Amino acid sequence: MGGKIKPHPALSKGEGKYYLCSLKKNDMKKLFVLTASFIFALTAVATPPDSTVTKKKPAAAKDRILIGAGFANWLNAPAGVNVKFAGSRSFDAAVMYDMPLGTSPISLALGLGFSAQNISSNAQFLKDSVTGNTSLVPYDTAAYSDIKRNKVSMSYLTVPFELRFRSKPDKAYRRWNIAAGFKVGLLVQSHSKYEDSKVKTKSYPVDNLNLLNYGPTFRFGYGQISLYGYYALSNVFENGKGPWVTPFNFGLVLAPF
């Protein structure tokens, strides 16, 4: 009765150890399967079978960046002076800060930009040696019959302001927009170019140009594209130092953001 219990003759010491390790691996597999089943069950309960992921709607553009290109022209040019429509272009770019007025569709915007006007015409800029005033006189077609290029270019740093109205965005997040504003520009560069079969010249700067260029602006469009127009209340030349010539331009504006 007090004898020792003998191990099973079929198991040696090494075989017993192997058998115990085998049991541990099986238990780990069972634990892994149970854990994975539990996580899957929680996921199935938390997410309904027919649920859909709601995508965040992108915000409609607020016209923070405006890039425009179009045609430039002059009103009230002296007799005989003709501006070439196809060769006269304008470029405008501005970074705007949009300030909505509460929850209304109206906002104010103030920005900083750059504007350039290139006027191609048949006019030559003549400065009087006595008075220092500038006059615009058409080239004599008999003496200058082979003119290839004759233009004046003016570049401005601008401060644009707009009062904006926007409709509600449609399904494509686009909307109608109307903006009326005002723009003031400071002349930073000007030059003239002339070219014919014999002569090619470029002159800096153009004498007696007005340092300030200002006037109302208007935009109307849908989505990122708008028609725009600008009409200057200022003269191309300084008052009393040249003819009264009124610049204006119109074209398209892209507002990517």
For the sheet with most strands, the description reads: 8 strands, antiparallel, barrel
Overall number of strands: 11
CATH topology of the largest domain: Porin
Distance between the termini: 96 Å
Question: Helical percent range?
Answer: 10-25%
Overall pLDDT metric: 84
Unreliable stretches (pLDDT < 50, length at least 5) are: 8-23
Which percent band covers the strand fraction? over 45%
Account of the 3D structure:
By secondary structure, the chain is mainly β. The chain folds into two domains: 33 residues; 190 residues, Porin (Beta Barrel), CATH 2.40.160. An eight-stranded antiparallel β-barrel has the order 1-2-3-6-7-9-10-11. A two-stranded antiparallel ribbon has the order 4-5. The N and C termini lie far apart (96 Å). About 6% of the residues have low confidence.
In short:
The protein is built from one helix and eleven strands.
Q: What attributes does this structure have?
A:
13% helix; two-stranded antiparallel sheet; elongated; Porin; single chain; 8-stranded antiparallel β-barrel; 257 residues
Spell out the blueprint of helices and strands.
Elements (H helix, E strand, L loop, with lengths): L12 H34 L18 E11 L13 E12 L5 E15 L2 E5 L6 E5 L10 E18 L9 E20 L4 E4 L8 E11 L2 E7 L14 E9 L3
Antiparallel strand pairs: 1-2, 1-11, 2-3, 3-6, 4-5, 6-7, 7-8, 7-9, 9-10, 10-11
